[in-house]
Each structure stands twice: as C-alpha cells, then as structure tokens.
Design brief:
The protein is an all-alpha fold. It has three helices and no strands. The longest helix has 28 residues.
Length: about 90
C-alpha cells in the first residue's frame, strides 16, 4: 500500500480522470489520442518505478535502465567493502 500512494501513481490516476472527464463530450481526435497515449506511457512508467523500488527493497536485482539501479549498485559496493574488511553486513 505504501507504494501505491507514490506521487507518480497518484498523478497518473488524476490525469486519467481529467482526460476521461474531458473526453465525454468530444470526439476522438489525433490530439486526444496522443493525450491518452501519453497517459498510458506515464502510467506504465510509474508502475515500473514502483516495481523496481519494491524489488530493490527486497534485495532482488533491478534492470540497469531503472533509476533505482544506481542506488542499488552503490549499496552493493558498500556491502562488498564491508565484507572485504571483515565486517558482517546487516541482515534485511
């Protein structure tokens, strides 16, 4: 539930509601089709970000094209340094 209240998901839902309200009385034009396509892409990206964040918190690998990937790599490097010094890493 914590992930679903993220700003990306909330923003995408609100934009979808606005598009839906605006498209009730008008015909489908190329501009409205592009607006719906843009909304779909935004929704897909925000869902992907939620999935990547959840996977990273679970310690599972994240795709290299994800914004979460860099943070996950830094954490892995820190753990590798600690292990090389003989310090036990924290359990999750």
């Amino acid at each position: 539930m914590n992930y679903l209240s993220g700003t990306g998901i909330v923003g995408a839902i609100m934009t979808g509601v606005t598009l839906l309200r605006g498209s009730r009385d008008t015909k489908l034009t190329w501009r409205s089709a592009l607006a719906w396509l843009s909304w779909g892409i935004t929704l897909a990206l925000s869902i992907g970000a939620v999935i990547d964040t959840r996977r990273a918190k679970q310690g599972r690998p994240v795709s290299p094209d994800s914004p979460v990937y860099a943070k996950q790599q830094k954490e892995h490097e820190k753990e590798a340094k600690k292990q090389s010094k003989g310090i036990k890493p924290l359990k999750r």
